[in-house]
Amino acid sequence: MPCRCRFALFDLHYSLPQFDWLLAAAPEFDVVIFAGDALDIGSFVDFRAQILVVKKYLSLLSGMTRVIFCSGNHDLDERSAEGEKIARWVGDVGELGIACDGDSLTVGDVRFTVCPWWDGPLVKSRIEAQLRDAAAEPAQRWIWVHHAPPANSPTSWGGKRFFGDVELVQWIAQYQPSMVISGHVHQSPFIPDGSWFDRLGTTWVFNTGLQHGRPPVYIVLDLDEDTAFWLAAGEAQRIDLRAPLARPAAEIENPPPWLISLGRIADPSLARPASAAG
User: Fold this and answer.
1) What are residue 273's DSSP bridge partners?
2) If 0-12 CB within 10 Å is exposed, 13-18 middle and 19+ buried, where does residue 190 land?
3) CA 84, CA 1: separation in Å to the nearest integer?
């Protein structure tokens, strides 16, 4: 049976108030998707402590709904034997029942492929093999979770240049997945010539962007209605996934019940689970 909603959330950068909000919101959704950068290399909190805390949040979330997690450039904690930067700790979250780097997961009629952040030719070649293998198992919808958005797309525009992945553009052209969920370029949705959505061929591409405070910026994909919603501070937009690419996105005039429900979530700092922050 197809799932109703996907909840996509990116670049939390160790913002515990945003993690707390997510714990309150997660039961509303069938799948919670992290497209990288749960940690923050610029934080004053020790990296090992960040990993322990984020794992606790992920454990709590996995008890509420399905969770998908790919690594971003801020999540890299080691070098492989070949010298490439990797997020070794992300592999450990698979023990929580979370689909993570290198995994494929089928939920209803949707196949998810979870790609690691790549820092060199070896991990890049593993992603190429991963996509090739997943393409051999057809699904009604194929969604990739990949931290960096494609190059030369409004979703990777930083204001002066693009910060996207050139190889991802080539992979999209080759396989034409239904969607690619990314993050990485925080300002894209908020600046001229940038956007939270794009379309390459038949593939929809999304990048939520980043705002501080709570709630975080987030995207909801309602696949029953073929609609994508983008919710940010003071902004609420939607696009029709069955229609051709058009800009600007429409304003949300008649919010669905689940969106109204999210607006009623109390300030999570008043009821933060002690086990998540300890």
Assistant:
1) none
2) middle
3) 40
Q: Around Cβ 54, how many Cβ atoms within 10 Å?
A: 23
Distance CA 129, CA 127 (A): 5
**What whole-number distance in Å separates Cα of residue 38 and Cα of residue 18?**
11
pLDDT tens per residue, range 236-272:
999 999 999 999 999 998 888 888 888 767 554 443 3
Which amino acid is located at 10 in the chain? F
In one-letter notation, the amino acid at residue 176 is Q
Joined together, the tokens standing for residue 194 give 């940038």
Angle at the Cα of 114 (from 14 to 220), degrees rounded to 5?
A: 65
pLDDT tens for 118-132 read 989 999 999 999 999
Supply angle C-alpha 8, 157, 263, rounded to 5.
30
Tokens of 92: 């450990």
Q: Which residue in 100, 112, 47 sits closest to 75, CA to CA?
A: 47
Give the C-alpha separation, 35 to 70, whole Å. 5
Rounded Cα distance between 22 and 34, Å, is 11
